[in-house]
Design a protein that fits this description.
It contains eight helices and eight strands; from the N terminus they run H-E-E-H-H-E-E-E-E-H-E-H-E-H-H-H. By secondary structure, the protein is α/β, with parallel strands linked by helices. The protein is elongated.
Length: 298
Amino acid sequence: MFIWVLALAPEKKLLKGKTVGVDSTTLEADAAMKSIVRKDTGEDWKQYLTRLMKEEGLIEDDDDPPSDDELRKFDKSRQNKKVSNDEWTSPSDPDSRIARMKDGTTHLAYKAEHVVDLETEVILAAEIYHADYHDTATPEDSLHQAQINQQEAGSEQEIKDAVADKGYHGAETLAKVREHTPYRTYIPEPKRRQSCVWTDKPPEQKQAVVANRRRTRGARTKVATTTQRARRANLRSRLRDGRRQKNLAHRHRESTEALPAGGRRTQSRCAHARAVQDGHAAKPATVQDGPGGGLTCP
């Protein structure tokens, strides 16, 4: 289905496929954290905490099982506690991974990574990875899949340039992309307190980082950045205009709810006239006054 939809894009001239952007996000899995179990013993969270309490001598083997409040209190008092994907898994969704979401919460999740045609904003690939995969580990596979999807969709265009944010910057990643693919990367470098040390790294990594740095600081990148900023400013302006119109309509509705019918018609005329002056509405051909007659807008 994805390839069938993508094949429609070249017919409508919506697929360029030369310059693409790569980005990812985390998606919460359909599995709860409370369902995870230990890989080595098969214990769930309550059984695991109960065993730890017994090992510390807080309860005996013949005692009643601790309550949920006791388990939570003990769990909060533990030092250096960590939930690792190497030790825990979800029996209902074993492919999901424990991950920190963007809002700071911890859930079982997946990593969704997409490749987009930057000129037409058509999605060329949408890949799903384990949530514990770092951004530097997946762009090469996603770019390859995007190129395959383009070919299967009937496009002869080959990907030339790949753009990503600084989270994808890594010397090893840039070297692999340069060595294994024909793609030119445009990935900004994160700010570092000190310069990189290349004495303990292969020369290919330094060459890839320097080449990527030269491209990201070139004239083409500056023009693209200026164009992107202009688009964002235009979008913000449109959003502000839309909010102003919504606020104007909301204030008008609130101010006319308690008025009689004639007053509402007069108020509507006044509000509309002010909107015409502000350029938010077209001036009507005819205006009817309320029953009071001769009323004018302030």
